[in-house]
Amino acid sequence: MRPRKTRAKRSGFVLVLVLCMVIMLAVLLFAFNHRSRAELLEVESLRKSEQALNCATAGLNMAIAAVRDANGIHTNTKLSSLLSGDETVELVPGACSVTVTEESAKINVNTLKDNNGGLNRGAIERLLRLTDLLNRRRFEGPRISYSVVCSIIDWTDSDDRVTSLPFVKGENLGAESDYYTGLPAPYACKNDLLDTTEELLLLKGVTADVFESMRDYITVKGDGKININSASQPVIESLSEKMDRAVARMIVDRRRARPFRHVTELRDVPGMTDNIYAAISGIVTVGSGSRYYQVISKGTFDGACCTIIAMLERNTEAKSVDVIMYKEI
């Protein structure tokens, strides 16, 4: 009788051992299958992202070709529509949309002081008016302080005197190195021109929220003149205290029908008075001879999306276009 019990115990032990091994193998196979599926999904996601990047790159190349012959941006209706960002270009495979903005359509924050180091009051007041316009649009979050304008002046000038504008009411105090070196992660005030608009995030008072509100209307490139054929309505409104919303709207409507070819054509805009024209005629341009352009190219492929933000510099003599800033999102 005992040998039979022993054999039965051994058989039961072997059965349990086999079952444990089968379970372990099943777990290993499940884990391997799960990992393999995850890796395949990751590879597929990477493939889609690369395709979306290719589509965005194609859009950037279209923008470079358009900028190379910049006269066509305003005069060629098909090209203007293509580069407005309103239309999607079907590619094989994928698609892209492209928005090209002339930097001369924006307020240059590097021009708040003149070549002699004095305050460029005209440029400062345009930026202050833009600040007021943007604050009227802000429904949430703190208002953009006039101190931001002073901070830009202090960051870009060569002295260590903190700027306060005597012709501005309310808070308007800039910051020099004493402020920046006292931060938890200290750094010195640059005392030189801004290289990119993103550099503004280093300045006192420029939060990420403030920067997002301002970024589409400001630049660090160009001579400071505003291209009336491509400037946004808020930038046009900020040109002079004499300019009002209705006239700015009329300018935008007029150029949609027919781009301005001469500054003097502004006189024909309904509501344009001699005072408004005299105030803005010296600081605007209508030519498409801008040297700098911002490109936002969005590529899509099967649910994946990639955005390229680039700054282009056009060399009219060499008839070439250089990419001087490039960022993928």
Topology:
Elements: H1 2-68, H2 72-75, H3 77-82, E1 89-90, E2 95-102, E3 107-108, H4 121-137, H5 147-156, H6 177-180, H7 208-214, E4 218-219, E5 226-227, H8 233-237, H9 245-257, H10 274-280, E6 284-285, E7 292-301, E8 304-315, E9 320-328
Parallel strand pairs: 3-4, 5-6
Antiparallel strand pairs: 1-2, 2-7, 7-8, 8-9
Describe the structure in your own words.
The chain is α/β, with parallel strands linked by helices and 329 residues long. The protein folds into two domains: 50-106 and 231-329, no CATH class; 109-218, EpsJ-like (Ribonucleotide Reductase Protein R1, domain 1, Orthogonal Bundle), CATH 1.10.40. Helices cover 43% and strands 15% of the residues. The chain contains ten helices and nine strands. A five-stranded antiparallel sheet has the order 1-2-7-8-9, covered by helices on one side. The protein has a two-stranded parallel sheet with strand order 3-4.
Describe the structure using short key phrases.
single chain, alpha/beta, 2 domains, five-stranded antiparallel sheet, 10 helices
TL;DR of this structure?
The chain has about 325 residues and is of the alpha/beta class.
